[in-house]
Amino acid sequence: MIKCHLSTLMGAQKIKISELARATNLNRNTITLLFKEEASRIDLETIEKLCKFFDCSISDFLEYIPEQKLDNNSQLTSD
Q1: Closest Cα partner for 61 from 18, 3, 1?
Q2: Cβ distance 53 to 23 under 8 Å?
């Protein structure tokens, strides 16, 4: 799974989606999908603009989280 940390980056700077859209010239819907982690793909230009705006690396913005594999001894629990 790929985790997008846009909401964390925006929260740290207390910036709204509309403000980020104006500052980066990105579509508001694109930012909203990334913020809610509902985007199925991201254009490289979008990643570049967001990393430049937040002065961060791609690894600060996106994170790969391997899906846990279940074996016979482990169980899924819900909190």
Answers
A1: 3
A2: yes
